[in-house]
Design a protein that fits this description.
The protein is α/β, with parallel strands linked by helices and 307 residues long. The chain contains 13 helices and 8 strands. Strands 1-2-3-4-5-6-7-8 form an 8-stranded parallel beta sheet.
Length: 307
């Protein structure tokens, strides 16, 4: 070996070791980042429907659903139900307090399944909402409206839909809307501020809307929030975040929330798996961003204390 090369290797040796050490540290940091998120969760899309509680004799009584939340570190829930009785039970039961779960109650716009397709033009729904708001729950007033669906975005122009959006803004109620991107613009346009002051939580963050379109709407409406259950394209291999979504979540880390969407009993059966799935991809984010999406954003939106 030529003496010069030998000397040069000796000189670079320690540097190589430093590089190797730095790489090893980076790998360790990556492992630390990749660990599942372990902090509190705010379930921002929860239903406690009749099929679950069924006059308190259903397959998922209060004690059962609360223990599911508790063992998954779910410390607050945005709750709504068809009919509203399920939410009232959750909000008023001493079991809920014992489980350490804070309930943010929303008025569901449906008394039964027929209301799904007609609420946006049915004056009796508007009257029902007024009655429920006046009545509240044993643990406090309703803080929002929804979840509601619009299968045709044009129905966002329905007289009752428009009145309810204006009411929400006036009374500072949040809304949980399962709608497409076109309906977001229409619902926002129905408020006095033209959407600048409406706290609209977009269930499933628009389903099929592209990340570019979500970005555009988030930029347009400063209080628009995205809930991430059933969101296509969110996760890739191993339940980790897909690159485009990771970028969007980091860009708007103050605007996203997670949710179970327990719309059918199967989702209650899967509750552990759903929350575990969130913890996996949340662990893929820097800890601050993960904590915001998992907990802080929902807690801030509804003034829920530290957990
Ligand atoms: Zn839902």
């Amino acid at each position: 070996m030529p003496a010069r090369l030998c000397r040069s290797l000796r000189q670079t040796g320690p540097r190589s070791r430093r590089v190797l050490a730095a790489l090893a540290l980076a790998a360790l940091a990556r492992v630390a980042w990749a660990a599942d998120y372990s902090g509190p969760l705010f379930d921002a899309h929860l239903h406690y429907n009749e099929e679950a509680f069924n006059g308190q004799t259903g397959p998922y009584p209060l004690a059962d659903v609360l223990s599911r939340m508790q063992r998954n570190g779910v410390r607050a829930i945005l709750a709504n139900s068809r009919p509203n009785e399920g939410t009232r039970q959750l909000a008023s039961s001493p079991l809920t307090r014992q489980a350490g779960v804070t309930v943010v109650p929303f008025v569901r716009l449906y008394r039964n399944r027929a209301d799904y397709d007609n609420w946006y033009r049915d004056e009796s729904i508007y009257a029902m909402v007024q009655t429920e708001l006046a009545r509240g729950t044993a643990s406090g007033p309703f803080l929002g409206l929804g979840e509601f669906h619009l299968y045709d975005s044009g129905n966002a122009n329905g007289a009752v839909a428009r009145k309810l959006m204006a009411l929400a803004e006036e009374k500072n109620l949040a809304v949980l809307a399962h709608v497409d991107d076109a309906a977001i613009d229409l619902l926002m346009a129905a408020t006095p501020s033209r959407g600048q002051k409406l706290r609209l939580i977009w269930a499933h963050t628009g389903g099929g809307a592209s990340t570019a379109r979500v970005d555009q709407l988030f930029a347009r409406y400063p209080l628009l929030m995205g809930e991430l259950s059933y969101r296509p394209g969110l996760t890739c291999e191993g339940g980790k975040l897909c690159p485009q979504w990771r970028e969007l979540l980091l860009k708007y880390q103050g605007r996203f929330m997670i949710g179970s969407d327990t719309w059918v009993n199967q989702r209650w059966a899967d509750y552990d798996g759903l929350m575990k799935g969130y913890r996996v991809w949340l662990g893929d984010l820097p800890p601050d961003a993960a904590r915001r999406i998992a907990w802080d954003n929902g807690a801030r939106l509804f003034g829920v204390g530290e957990k």
